[in-house]
Amino acid sequence: MLNFSLNKRNLSSVSVTVLFSYFLTGCTGMALSNKEPVSLVQGPPITDIFTPFDMALSCLKGQLRKDISFSVGAILDQTGKDVVTNGGSGKMVTQGAGDMVQSALFQAGVSLLNRRDPRIIESEAKWGIRDARKIQASDYYVTGSINSLDFIPGGGFDMQIGGVGPNYSQTRIMVGLDLSLTDARSSKVVANVSLQKQIAAQDYGISAGRFAGHTLLNIQIGKGEREATNFALRQMLNLATFELLSQVIPPSVFESCRTEIPPEFGRLNLTRSSVALHRYKKSQQQHTINPSSTVQESVLEEAPSSQEKNKSTNSPSKETQPPKNKESEVIKNPEEEPERSKQDLIKYISLKQGSSSSSKMNAEKENKDEKTLMLWEVNPEVAENYWSTTQRD
Fold first, then answer.
1. Is 163 strand, coil or helix?
2. pLDDT at 317
3. The pLDDT value given to residue 100
4. For the chain, N or C: smaller number of CB within 10 Å?
5. What's the sign of the alpha-carbon dihedral 18, 24, 29, 33?
């Protein structure tokens, strides 16, 4: 430890500051000799990445069929924003969004195919050591982009009285992304989601400045808080993946999983699955309100039958007629189609129905717009219930 006496040595305040900073640097990143390694600073331990939406994704395990395979395509950075620092220049948002979505799908327990880097498969196929025809094809794939990064003007204050006072400032960044789930056979988009998030940053502290004779003493103490941009993007991508999967399964399947999402971390109000869940809950409430009326109707239907049983069976009634079969039991629809097999429902989400009769083809052509509206009504129970394992034959 070196002690400097300002009375014996005529050192200026600038030289004292330089020497003090030099010794502080030597304690942290300098070695006594160039032949000795510098001791490295050990920070916090390595941990696995956990987001508030991982529990909801894990809840979907076993809810989607294993014979439907998923893959992840390009999820690009379309913000056009770059950052320049002392170490160089780079992008402001992560370039690994596709890998994050792939991890989210794997956590949801779906049948996942790796299409992030096909160079290994292509090389082995070119070398003749692998048959490319045996590689499993994707049924559905996820694509999208991080397409907006806006800086929202912030504010703050700096107040000093007698050279002493607090200061505070706040800034915001708004990030947006879009993801789509596409049918690989028909290139039809079967699910889509758009999300945005405001990333907040704030700085606050206190400063004091005083003159001690001819010397100015200035002290500043502060603290800054800023959300990690790429970790916030990972949360958005995990929530978007959960939303894509929720749009292709019935609300009764993902309703319990949706409760695992903390509302302070994510809220979905206008998405397709949110509307479907709202309608499902509303129909459930109506079923719970109307059971009394259905019981009364059943009692009224049973009353006439009990009166007929009390009639005497010895005397024939004039109204008695030979029994007739129901019309539905006698007349058969000649154009009735057989029950759809599971193989017909694996690949397609549009529920197309073929027919050999020309009359039905004309009817389908006339009602094309009507069927499209019925298909894309926000009700996965009608159009996409074959995704769920609970709906399998």
1. coil
2. 52
3. 97
4. N
5. positive
Residue (of 51, 151, 179) closest to 107 by Cα position: 51
Q: What are the tens digits of pLDDT across the range 346-393? A: 443 333 444 444 444 554 554 544 444 443 344 444 444 445 665 544
Mean per-residue pLDDT over the chain, rounded:
77
Is there a contact between 65 and 387 (Cβ–Cβ < 8 Å)? yes
Tens of pLDDT along 67-80? 999 999 999 999 98
d(CA 199, CA 36): 43
- Long-range CB pairs of 277-280 (<8 Å, 24+ gap) are 277/251, 279/251, 279/378, 279/379, 280/250, 280/251, 280/252, 280/255, 280/381
Q: Are 73 and 142 in contact (CB under 8 A)?
A: yes
Angle at which helices 251-258 and 229-246 pack, to 10 degrees?
A: 150
pTM over 0.85: no
How many whole angstroms separate alpha carbon 100 and alpha carbon 246? 18
Bridge-based pairing state of the strands 82-85 and 88-91: antiparallel
- Nearest CA to 278 among 288, 293, 263, 268? 268
